[in-house]
Amino acid sequence: MFETLTLGPDDNDATLASRLRKALRSAGDAPLLIAGDFARSFDDADAAFAWLGLLTTSQCLLALQAEGLLGQRGIALMLACDLAFVGPTAALDDAWRETPGLAALALRRSGSALARPLLLGGIETVDDMAEAGLVLPLAALEEIADKLDDSHLAALRRRKRALRAAEALPFDEALRFDLAFLGKEAFA
Amino acid sequence: MLNPASQQAPAAPVTATRQGAVLLLTIMRPEARNALNPAILSSLARSLDEAGRDGATRAIVLAGGADFSAGADIDVIAGHNPASYLGSVTRRAFEAIRRCELPVIAAVSGYCLGGGCELALSCDLVIAGDDAIFGQPEINLGIIPGAGGTQLWRERTGLGAQADAALLGGMIDAFTARRIGLVDAVVPAEHVRDQALARAQRLAAKAPLAVRAAKAALKARGQMGLGPALDHEVALMAGLLGTEDAREGTRAFLEKRAPKYEGR
Q1: Kind of pairing between the strands at A32-36 and A3-7
Q2: Model-level pTM greater than 0.90?
Q3: CB within 8 A of A36, min separation 6: which ones?
Q4: Chain A residue closest to B181 (CA)?
């Protein structure tokens, strides 16, 4: 059910932006799983902004499968995706807090209460992130994948759109956004 | 012998359907992402003009399909010279659309760029689907917006976003458009038309003379300074006090019932 984009260690930010754009187009309504090498740092601010923009505005359900070292790219991807699954080898790069954009991404992903320990101290390891609910064990990915039939996926996509509306719109308009899925009779 | 394709009547560039006092106009050129050509613009201008005079229409919804409109037809623009553009159907059509006295709601999904964005911003309310993308990319073609794209953003967003759109030619999504005031609501894209129609029905239930007067008063601010606009508002209000609708509105309020407006 998942489309997969596997990143290589040599994929720079421009390549990532291009590959991500194609992968999202190709995925259509299917969820996209991003896997591969996440150790790199950012190398191009405009290109990084482009791929982060693609992730944070996409209606596609986005999941990250993280194993090995998580550098700036890994942290940014983890926070920009809807769900992040970590394997037993996943570990944070020593300089992960220097990730450009971390404040905005952390606040967007986890709210103010968790953004502070992420940025200022308190959440230090992948295990801490798991305890805080920011990442899930890899086994959970299989459980979710097993349940992903068309109707479940449609429900997840709808909830993701409603979540974006809740983040971006005034409260009453966000409520109306989700209620609109009841159909036009609800607003006659 | 004619082949089957040539026997078919050409598809209407804009379809018009009616739901009570609400007229729904839908741009029908999906194969070109609803790029605006003279046929579409002339048809829109004609439909809006007729609706303003038919006595039955009280509100209008202007919609596209998957895309509201990706902009003006590049071939048409490229075919103009300085003299021909000034008198073009395109230019006159946009003016006719802006002159419409009835309230018009744009139901925008997908691409709403260039002339399409100018068309949406010519409407009184803009309802955006959550997949809508707005922009004035003309600068990227070595031209500028020619139907309000350097002016109409400013009324809604202020100068910064206007300058950004006209000078840099970038695109913004529906939520950004909502945040900066370019659009009035964001709804699920698959429901944008229904939501716009529901609002139009609410508009259509109001006193039609008052709605026209309110629209005229709103537009006056863009055409004159605050003092004259306030004077204009007073004159419009005074004119309404002599209408049967105004009497019916106050009577219904006092009698605790829904008013029934006749447009008299």
Answers
A1: parallel
A2: no
A3: A5, A6, A7, A8
A4: A169
Contacts A168 to B, Cβ<8 Å: 175, 178-179, 186
Q: How many residues does the structure list for chain A?
A: 188
Interchain pair A180, B175: CB under 8 A: no
Q: Binning pLDDT at 50, 70 and 90, where does residue B7 land?
A: low
Which of B204, B210, B208, B205 has the alpha carbon at shortest distance from B241?
B210
Q: What is the DSSP string of A92-159?
A: E-TTGGG-TTHHHHHHHHHHHHHHHHHHHSS--SHHHHHHTTSSEEHHHHHHHHHH--HHHHHHHHHH
Indicate the average pLDDT of chain B: 91
Higher pLDDT, B195 or B5: B195
Instruction: Give the span between the Cα atoms of B246 and B257, in whole angstroms.
Output: 15
Structure tokens at B213: 């007067």
- pLDDT for residue A186: 53
What's the ipTM?
Answer: 0.86
List, in order of start, the domains of chain A with CATH numbers: 3-144 (3.90.226.10), 149-187 (no CATH)
